[in-house]
Amino acid sequence: MSKSEGNSKNKCAIISSKLDTNEVIIDFLKKAMDKGIFDAVLMPLKVPAGDSFAYVLIKDKTLLKDGVPLSPIMSVQGAKAVSSVTRLGKAKMKIAAVMRPCEIRGTNELSKLGQTNLENITLISMDCPGVLPMSDFLIDPEKNIRIFNEAMQKGDDTIMRPVCQICDKSSMVAGDLHIGIRGAKKDTFFMISNSQKGNDVLDKLGIDLKGDINSWQAKVKNIADEKHKKREKHLKELKSKTGGLDNLADTFSQCINCHNCMRVCPVCYCRLCYFDSDKVKHPSEDYLKMAERKGSIRFLPDTILFQMGRMLHMSLSCVSCGACEDACPMSIPVAQIFSMIADETQGLFDYVSGRNIEEPIPLITYKEDELHDVEDAND
Amino acid sequence: MEMKIGVYICECGPNIADKVDIAKVINAVSSIDGVVVAERYKLLCSAEGKRFLKEEIKKHALTHLVVAACSPKQHEQTFMEVCEKAGINPYLFQLANIREQCAWITEDKDEATEKAIRLTRAAIKRVCHHSPLEKKELECNTDVLVIGGGIAGIETSLQLASPDRKIYLVEKSSSLGGLLTNFDKTFPSMQSGSKSIQEKIQTVNNNANIEVFTNSEVEEILGFFGNFEVKVKKRDEEQSTAEFNVGAVVLATGSTLFDPMQTPQYGYGDLDNIITSLEFENMNSSGKITLKNGKTPNSVAIIHCVGRDKTGYCSEICCMYSLKFVRYLKDKISNVKVSNFYSDLCIPGKTYQKFYDQTKGKHVDFIRSTDIKITKNGDKLNIEYKDENGSKNNLVVDMAILTPAMEPTSDTSRLTEVAGVSLGDGGFFAEEHQKLSPVSTTTEGVYIAGCAQGPKNISDTLDQANAVTGKILSSLIPGRKIEPEVKISQISESFCIGCKTCINVCSYGAITFDEARKISVVNEAICRGCGNCVAACPSGAATLKHFTFNQIYKELMEAVQ
User: Fold this and answer.
1) Which option is the CATH number for B265-404: 3.40.50.300, 3.50.50.60, 3.40.50.720, 3.40.50.920?
2) Is the CB of B561 less than 8 angstroms away from the CB of A293?
3) Which of B93, B234, B285, B502 matches a 20 to 30 Å C-alpha distance to A274?
4) C-alpha distances out from residue A116 to A81, A111, A124, A225, A310, Å
5) B286-321 pLDDT, tens digit each
6) With an 8 Å Cβ cutoff, are B494 and A364 in contact?
7) What is the predicted ipTM?
């Protein structure tokens, strides 16, 4: 099973250009802005200090040239940026949001959860080489930008984040348009449309969707299959290391309850996290009782409860973007663990988070014919 | 105000006293903060017991009451009423179940006592965090929605309609009457069918207290017994919607015939002169029974149980109307030979056997058979079958009448969603209890009459219409007050993030979305306090009154400490 390659119904155009991927995307955006197809672009930009990247809503098209669609790090998950712009209703102008596939999938999940309105948003993705671990990057940003670009050229993912190394959805087309590099001949790019909105944009730009998508699909499948194998092996090892309450407790024993993982998670959309609320704060005598019963009690409390609670809440929508792991000051492999669990919970419902914006979230859909394993277990 | 909790342990005769060391329980709970009295009593649900509790509440000026006794399902209401009479809010009460959950489930008195202590302690902790809740009263709406304008719906409407009870009769087709309009006569009286229903339709149309909607479908039913909000979509030129409130709903959507095209062995649709029972009724009503070529048939086969294997149930009425068909045939073609191919004859009751005895006779055969196959034999039909001994046989006839199984109408499953009831055997509406509550459903105030509940004859259908009438007349009384659920959900405006998950899981349609504020809002008149939204809300914005996080947490913590 590989749901990672592009939809076979996708239409594509082949664009010839001597530019690199970042430049091709920016060139495309510029032309679209010139034609008034987009009024603004939301994409990563190098910060003025030059040592990080941030999502910026660009209204002035002369600033487009500073954009870095394939930034070496994921400082903010793009879904959160799109949600910030449209949480309170549709955008009043046409915006192109340029993001990695997992960020688009996160955006789709947020759309299903009423946290963003995509009516005037065109989601544009590209084949994703992965991103660097934030902690590695920060040691020497300038050098690491160079290293990242070289690795991207070579298709080498060994310096990327662990969760990127095992990502089998790095070319998943879940938005409106997708720029494909994989399987392309020298100086050509695939421009893939995945929706009517995507078709309309290309139509207005006079780009005909008559290209042959086969070589992209073949290459993407090849990479996805390879990554999938790697993923299965890696997650199996991870499961043996973290499975069971004792192992899980050991894994999270370094947790400092900063809740950063929750704050950066695109699908942790609650206004106030339950675990930050007063509902989990108890009078001292309760803690004393617990200490009495168990001999001692760790503070801050509820570490595992927080992780499991969060997992329970969001694993069906987890897009394995890795933001949580980047944000963890204690280097706990949170993203890998959550990604592992997400595979299993989503698999139960044959659901892939964010794959398709029309696909309803399993929690709110009732099917008579599902979860028989659970029923049988109670027989 | 200082909290004064009274704890009372019921002996329940020997039920609890024999298995739980009540003295130990009293000892264990007496010193808990807030408990001012802990006592035992023989039988708290008795009249004396209730009086005792009431006096105790007054004597000790109790603010909260805990009873350790039986299941809340049995006596929670009883003790809440005692609280009310004694002047404390009934929600400042908690019942610990130390009978079903302690005394009755173990032979070990120590274990039962230990658990009884934990449950009682937990109840005391919980009650400390209870809030007084105020009951509301709502005027009961006595109007009734009847869905389906066949004989069941018509009869129910006619009996219920009165100046203080308006009936909304909704029929999806263009006219009232249902299947019965097709029947020239009805068994076993052989009195007029279509004529009698036409008279009833006339009476309905003349009744000012019945509003008839034809070409209409019920789109939405929200609310509860005594207070349903209904939306009806009219399929007239402008596609309008009617909205009204009723107190009860009657599902009388009838049944339809199994499609014999699904059983190709009978040749229906392929061969001439093979017709369904309904087509035969119409042919008979037209005055002339003929073959396709206009000639009169000399021999007719009636094939019983068509589709029974597929539906898996006996349709109850086919044997009897097949006998009626024999009468139709004999009345119109005196020398016709009729052969009934049946698998089991279903002719119960005090009149049917007589009808059968009087129908069988010369040139009327009853052949018990299986594996029927109909093929062409020149102008005629060849009925191949296996007889009772398993031997292959055949019979050549001019015409074959199929009696297809009765099936639920096509919108039955949609209506289960709309009316909040379940589907039962055969895909018909499920009754609350097959024997004890055959016309009620699991949703209070929603009833079933006639074939919508399963295949049945006209008199059984009328019996059900009468039963539904009785149910409604005895409960939806003008002037009666209904109490909407008090333990309802509430959604915090400051925590709600507007993901609408709650709206999707609400079984009662009680939550709407406020587009301006981007938050979910609970309709208090419709919410039944099931707690689905509370469980589904990721933000903890939805909470259930009387089942707040804090209440449950305190109770659990105390139980497991």
Assistant:
1) 3.50.50.60
2) yes
3) B93
4) 10, 5, 16, 32, 21
5) 999 999 999 999 999 999 999 999 999 999 999 999
6) no
7) 0.83
